[in-house]
TrEMBL record:
<dbReference type="InterPro" id="IPR001478">
    <property type="entry name" value="PDZ"/>
</dbReference>
<dbReference type="GO" id="GO:0046872">
    <property type="term" value="F:metal ion binding"/>
</dbReference>
<dbReference type="GO" id="GO:0006508">
    <property type="term" value="P:proteolysis"/>
</dbReference>
<dbReference type="InterPro" id="IPR041489">
    <property type="entry name" value="PDZ_6"/>
</dbReference>
<keyword id="KW-0472">Membrane</keyword>
<keyword id="KW-1133">Transmembrane helix</keyword>
<dbReference type="InterPro" id="IPR008915">
    <property type="entry name" value="Peptidase_M50"/>
</dbReference>
<protein>
    <recommendedName>
        <fullName>Zinc metalloprotease</fullName>
        <ecNumber>3.4.24.-</ecNumber>
    </recommendedName>
</protein>
<feature type="transmembrane region" description="Helical">
    <location>
        <begin position="88"/>
        <end position="115"/>
    </location>
</feature>
<keyword id="KW-0479">Metal-binding</keyword>
<dbReference type="Pfam" id="PF02163">
    <property type="entry name" value="Peptidase_M50"/>
</dbReference>
<feature type="transmembrane region" description="Helical">
    <location>
        <begin position="263"/>
        <end position="283"/>
    </location>
</feature>
<dbReference type="GO" id="GO:0016020">
    <property type="term" value="C:membrane"/>
</dbReference>
<dbReference type="GO" id="GO:0004222">
    <property type="term" value="F:metalloendopeptidase activity"/>
</dbReference>
<dbReference type="InterPro" id="IPR036034">
    <property type="entry name" value="PDZ_sf"/>
</dbReference>
<keyword id="KW-0378">Hydrolase</keyword>
<keyword id="KW-0862">Zinc</keyword>
């Protein structure tokens, strides 16, 4: 895969994550009647814009995020459609929608990955042959039905695996059926240095199941969220290191590297990054969605609206600090991955 194509795939994935996140804010804001001035992908100088009926849609030069600019979000506004004039529940929904969309995107990406990969069946039929392993050398082919191994009838793939492992030091007499004809082979298993399991180099047939793909992707997303929460808990307590944390440049680089292998790695990595983006944005840090939720909860508990301009200043300060951290992460990514 060419370098330009790899970069395009990486930018496409990163852009997809940002678009989904910001579309969550944008879509719910529109649903609850908030006026949205701009929907931006990227930061810095505007390089492309399209003016809608009410909202301007823009792409900016730095691919490190995006934002939705709403009326009255960080300033006083008497407009009845402003963010600060909407009830707390509506504002909470708008803020939470961004991270939620990242989780939804992760489930979608993992579902695609699982569906495309397929799930092993338990039928005693050979799906793929591993090159240069005993099965291929002996002449076994994909699609062969394994009837018996050393006189023991095989009716499930699980039984095939168990029998090969039980007879790891013996010659295996394997009877197969191919195109209605029965054939016999004598094979001795070989240890896989990676898994330390004895094998002859065959894998089961695969089936595609949307239900299995969706349920597995949902479970995987929940597991990754738990792992992320656990990591940040250890990070804040000082029992974990941030040395493996990457910034936007590192993310683009890793996606590009995944694109060199196959689509499964790209989908898996994109799903992981999407979950990470959702969890990070829920952290109670000014300028992030979690920081805004903290202010909304304070307002809900006190029953008094906070000064939007003062809150805006806090978020702006947090944003400046985050941009400083972002620049540091960019430098760290460049050094770590030897990009220049």
């Amino acid at each position: 895969m060419g370098t330009i194509l790899i970069i395009l795939v990486a930018l496409l994935v990163f852009g997809l994550l940002v678009v989904f996140h910001e579309f969550g804010h944008f879509g719910v804001a529109k649903l609850v009647g908030i006026k949205v001035h701009e929907f931006a992908i990227g930061m810095g100088t505007r390089i492309l814009k399209v003016k809608g009926k009410e909202t301007e849609y823009s792409i900016r030069i730095l691919p490190i995020g995006g934002y939705v600019k709403m009326e009255g979000e960080d300033e006083h506004s008497k407009d009845e459609r402003s963010f600060n004039n909407k009830p707390i529940w509506a504002r909470i929904l708008v803020i939470v929608a961004g991270p939620v969309m990242n989780f939804v995107l992760a489930i979608f990406l993992f579902t695609m990955m699982f569906y495309m990969m397929g799930f092993p069946t338990n039928r005693p039929i050979v799906g793929e042959i591993i090159p240069d392993f005993p099965a291929q050398i002996a002449g076994i082919e994909a699609g062969d039905e394994i009837i018996s191994i050393s006189g023991k009838e095989m009716d499930t793939w699980e039984k095939i695996v168990e029998t090969i492992h039980e007879n790891k030091d013996k010659d295996l007499r394997i009877k197969i059926r191919r195109d209605g004809e029965e054939k016999n082979f004598s094979i001795k298993s070989r240890v896989n240095e990676g898994t330390k399991q004895f094998m002859i180099g065959i894998s089961p047939t695969l089936e595609k199941s949307f239900i299995k793909s969706f349920t597995n992707s949902f479970s995987k997303t929940i597991d990754v969220i738990k792992e992320m929460i656990g990591f940040f808990g250890k990070l804040f307590s000082g029992s974990a290191s941030a040395k493996d944390v990457v910034g936007p440049v590192g993310i683009i680089y890793l996606v590009g590297e995944a694109a060199k292998t196959n689509i499964y790695y790209v989908l898996h990595l994109a799903g992981l990054i999407s979950v990470n983006l959702g969890v990070v944005n829920l952290l109670p840090i000014p300028a992030l969605d979690g920081g805004r939720l903290v202010f909304l909860m304070i307002e809900g508990l006190t029953g008094k609206p906070l000064d939007p301009e003062k809150e805006g200043f806090v978020h702006f300060t947090g944003f400046v600090l985050l941009m400083g951290l972002m620049l540091f992460m960019v430098y760290k990514d460049i050094v770590r991955f030897n990009l220049f």
